Amino acid sequence: MKWEPSILLLVLVGLAESKILHASDSGIASTPNSPQCTTEGNLIDIATIFFAQFIPEATYQEIGKLVKDFLADFKKLVAEKPKDCLEKQLPAFLEEICHDKDISEKHGLAGCCSKAGSDRLECLLAHKRRGNAASIPEFQIPEPIQSCKAHQENPVTFMNRYIYEISRRHPFLYAPTILSLASRYDKIIANCCQVENVVECFHNKAAPVTKELRESSSVSQHICGVLRKFGERTFKAIMLTKLSQKFPKANFTVIQNLVLDGAHAHMECCNGNGPECVQDMNEIMSYICSQKDSLSSKIQECCTLPLRDQGICIVNAENDERPEGLSPDLRRFLGERKFHLYSSEEKDLFLARFVYEYSRRHQELAVPVILRVAKGYQEALEKCSKTENPLECQDKEEEELNKHVQDSQALAKRSCGLFQKLGEYHLQNVFLVAYTKKAPQLSPQELIGYTKKMAATASLCCQLSEDKQLACGEGAADLIIGQLCARHEVQPINDGVGHCCDSSYAHRRPCFSNLVKDEKYVPPPFSHEQFKFCEDLCHTKGEELQKKKQEFLINLVKQKPHITEEQLKAVTADFTGLLEKCCKGKPETCFAEEGPKLIAKTQETLGA
Fold first, then answer.
1. At what angle do helices 155-169 and 144-153 cross, to 10 degrees?
2. Per-residue pLDDT reduced to its tens digit, 129-187
3. Which range is the signal sequence, renumbered to this chain (predicted)?
4. 545-570 pLDDT, tens per residue?
5. DSSP letter (8 states) at residue 158
6. What is the distance between the alpha carbons of residues 187 and 512, in angstroms, rounded to a whole number?
7. Helices (H) and strands (E) in the chain, counts
8. How far is the C-alpha of 191 from the C-alpha of 374, rounded, in Å?
């Protein structure tokens, strides 16, 4: 692997918060390594991350035993073959999981351990994807006073326990990110424990770390999912687009080399290879800042920061300005008339050059939009280069390429118009109706969760200037759809969802937009239990009451997927009226009398 541009995409696709930290910065004692195994972090903590992510159900004591045994075995390996130790770390980690049969059998890994080499790794990764990390309660920051005492008594153990708790809840979060967040949390504790109002200090300073943790975990899982589902070629195209937008003045060869090395590094990170992931990050941050003058004018200050802080600074930095003199049209590229005679390698290189040139000209567009344009461009080249009048053909195809951008712009404008008119909650209900029709197999909790993120995206992106709304909205939609597709992979939803998730990365969002309903869905028999009204509704307030109303809405749509907007409005208005009427007087008596009337009316409306 080349040393210079290992994993710049971590910076550019939202993963650069995976900052490198020095052992001396972390406050955690480091394990002696050979020079070849230096990871600028702590092998004990990296081992903890690895084992906790692969076996999230394991206790802290079980993980501690695996770490201890691994370090003992690995020290022997380093003594025997110091030059090969970095390459041997991942196999050594996997071997340790399987060596302890009590732990591997207890946690259902015996089948994977019967395999060898890459088959064992893929089996363990599949187990990780199907794992129960989501069922583990969200990590609660310990009570501040107790935290201060425990941290003061044994900071190394305290922080290692924090790393364990974070890792088991976020099995695909990159190791450098976890180490970086741990370093920040360590400093928060050290600082807050010195002030008078410890509780307030913890609340104010720890909340941003928790938010960044959730966001980073979502992005890393999405990236690994795309890499696994669509392969290295699509992933390189994503990287090429982001890099070209971020550093539009960098020449094509530099960007191309960054893409090649970045793809390899991401693969290591997604495979859980923490040591190499950390080492690559160290190298790339050093490289970026050594080339800051030629890469971007926006990262100068970032490179004056400590190494561990440079990544998040760079990702938050604006895209550099476009070079002057770039022609806005595609004529130069569409003018290629011999495309159909190129070899597959020549075609790939030519298309990569197009993505580079188009992306640096269109920093306002989201990655999937540019990839849709690129796909259309490829088809145009194949088609027009075989026609008698290529120029006329190219004029028509150029108009078609612009439609990809226009469609996305229209969607952003429509969504923001609805947000301004309805507000976040009622916009969520619009999404809720649409996605209940698309995926009625999802539970009410899942549907509410996904659509809440969609509405929150509108709330965030529609406040931005128009030139930033499109990239913001399409980018966030890509993440949400990725989560929905990850759910489908674990437990299939329906054929329509499967088609949109599997057919094309670039066209996933348009595919879901065009998916109206599941044609094979058969509504369940009408059940009075779905529309049961009780006194508890009168004691439910705020967000919880809104959720109850949304569950009622979901049940309506699941009962009658073809329900019209007018019917929905009528039934939900009746439901709201029932609540207002019954909660003013004697709820139990009122619901007993009026509830059956509403159910009968609803049945009639639904034709059930």
1. 120
2. 887 666 788 777 778 888 899 999 999 999 999 999 999 999 999 888 898 889 889 99
3. 1-18
4. 899 889 989 988 998 898 888 888 88
5. H
6. 44
7. 27, 0
8. 50
15-24 per-position pLDDT tens digit: 333 332 233 3
* Candidates 1.10.150.120, 3.40.30.10, 1.10.246.10, 3.50.30.40; CATH matching 413-514: 1.10.246.10
Query: Could you tell me the pLDDT band of residue 114, with boundaries at 50, 70 and 90?
Result: very high
Beta carbons within 10 angstroms of residue 385's beta carbon: 18
Q: Give the Å distances, CA to CA, from 433 to 121, 246, 489, 562.
A: 41, 37, 23, 11
Which of 183-192, 375-384, 388-397, 541-550 has the least mean pLDDT?
388-397
List the chain domain ranges: 40-202, 413-514, 528-606
Task: Specify the pLDDT at position 337.
Answer: 65
CA quadruple 69, 71, 72, 78: dihedral positive or negative?
A: positive
143 labeled binding residue: no
Q: What pTM was estimated for this model as a whole?
A: 0.85
In angstroms, the CA 606 to CA 524 distance is 12
For the residues 27-45, what does the mean pLDDT come to? 48
What does 1-52 look like in DSSP terms, one character per residue? --STTTTTHHHHTT-TT-----HHHHTSPPPP--GGG--SS-HHHHHHHHHH
CA neighbor of 471 nearest in space, from 482, 485, 460: 460
Third-level CATH fold of 528-606: Serum Albumin; Chain A, Domain 1 (1.10.246)
268 carries a ligand binding annotation: yes
**What stretches of 319-389 show up as alpha helix (H) in DSSP?**
331-334, 344-361, 367-384
In terms of phi and psi (left: phi > 0; alpha: psi -120 to 50; beta: otherwise), the region of 272 is: left
